[in-house]
Amino acid sequence: MPELPEVEVVRRGLADHVLDRTVAAVDVAHPRAVRRHVAGGPDFAARLAGRTITAARRRGKYLWLDLDGDEALLAHLGMSGQMLVADHGRPDEKHLRVRLRFADGGPELRFVDQRTFGGLSLHPVVGPDRLPEPVGHIARDPMDPAFDLDAAVAGIRRRRTGLKRALLDQTVVSGIGNIYADEALWRARLHGERPTEKLTRAQGRTVLAAAAEVMDAALDAGGTSFDALYVNVNGASGYFDRSLDAYGQADRPCRRCGTPIRRESFMNRSSFSCPRCQPRPRGL
DNA sequence: CGAGTATCCTGTCCGC
DNA sequence: TGCGGACAGGATACTC
Asked: pLDDT (tens digit, 9 = 90+) per residue, A239-252?
């Protein structure tokens, strides 16, 4: 499940392999993969052909390739999306959704996505930051050089909800998914259902700094593990196996205090936390 | 309008 | 062995 560090690994791989290359032809193998391109698959393929890729950019979990002209090829990997740089003739992956061939005859770019939560689309880039339109409402992520920590803390405290919900809201801070939210809360020793209006500024700064630390660590681990010719979003899985303190650790002892980690139901999914280090707020 | 929830999808795992 | 159900979860359309 790609979160920000995995998406950044993919962005770097794309920067290495598709920059300054011109798209020759596009195959859309599954229409759902381009459902966010409202004009449809044939329009997507026709408009992408002949375009040259000028940059590989990212905000939060959104990834896009700037094209010549003021447009971008936007990608979201969803739950299971992968960008693969593949030599011709290599057998198609079972869940190949979109293929880009290039005019230089070099390796092609494949979008592979088992569960089709992800997708590709073309959009104008707008505003001073030259963002694709669907990214306009996404907040800066903690790895963005222009990320404003105090503004993000203020954004969280302005919400009237639980802390974990606020962390997952991509319009407040982007790039934090279920795994990193649980890890950040564990590091900050805060329960996810703590009301945001009772969160102190110091607690807010602590939990966001923790999120940034977890992301940095995952990027260090994932950024070195992918093959130069195979841009693989699963590159960071080794990090998850070894380094998670809370997420997925139900009944295993907390690394700080030894208390078994608890699993709770949250928004039709799961939250993991230490009952002792992260006590439930009173009354909840 | 803000908060919370239902929904999309498919592969894996578990119990019977 | 095979089947049914739970589970994984980002983003958004939807309701209240």
From this structure: 555 588 999 899 99
Write out residues in chain A with pLDDT < 70, as ranges.
1, 222-242, 283-284
**Model confidence pLDDT, tens digit, residues A178-209:** 989 999 999 999 999 999 999 999 999 999 99
The residue from A135, A164, A199 where one domain ends is A135
Instruction: Domain of residue A162: give its range.
Output: 149-273
According to DSSP, the β-strands at A108-113 and A96-102 are antiparallel
C-alpha angle A251-A254-A260 in degrees, rounded to nearest 5: 30
Between helix A201-222 and helix A149-158 the angle, nearest 10°, is 120
Tell whether residue A30 is among the known ligand binding residues: no
Residues A125 and A174 in one domain: no
Mark which of A80, A106, A135 sits at the end of a domain: A135
Flag whether A186 is in a domain: yes
Locus of tokens 């669907």 = A134
Minimum-distance nucleotide, CA of A250 to C1': C7
Note the helical H segments in chain A.
Answer: 4-17, 41-48, 149-158, 163-168, 178-188, 201-222, 237-243
Q: Evaluate if the CB of A12 falls below 7 Å from strand B.
A: no
Tell me how far apart the alpha carbons of residues A102 and A192 are, in angstroms, rounded to a whole number.
46
Note whether residue A281 is domain-resident.
Answer: no
Q: Give me the active site residues of A, please.
A: 2-3, 61, 269
What CATH code is carried by the domain that includes residue A62? 3.20.190.10
